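Researcher: I'm preparing a figure for a lab meeting and need a structural model of a single chain. I don't have an experimental structure, so a prediction will have to do for now. The sequence is pasted below. Please return the structure as tokens so I can convert it later.
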Amino acid sequence: MQRILLAQIVIAALIATFFLSRSVEEAAAALFGGAIALINGVLIARRITKNANMSKPSPTTEVRSMYIAVIERFVSIVVFLALGMMIWQDDRAAQFALIVGFIGGQIALMIFGKTHSA
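Model: Understood. Here is the structure written out token by token.
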């Protein structure tokens, strides 16, 4: 999982570097978006670790744990994206950079998560 989180950090930094050539605000927004994806990755890692440490959980407990994890991730993403959009509400380019940074981090999670599980 550390490899996945490291990949998210690297991709967010690369995206922020690209946007830095345009403006510091856009680079900060891209980093913020990447950080949102990283928080999502940390929540996943935490839930995986917690589930691995459970001794013979019942199917009901496992399903409940999965639902809680999905709700945590969804709420955190919505809250942080809304916060970022409010911070850069007057700068459409920074809002675009925020979304690009988030998507880049999510793509890293999907790609490296898939190769990690194989």
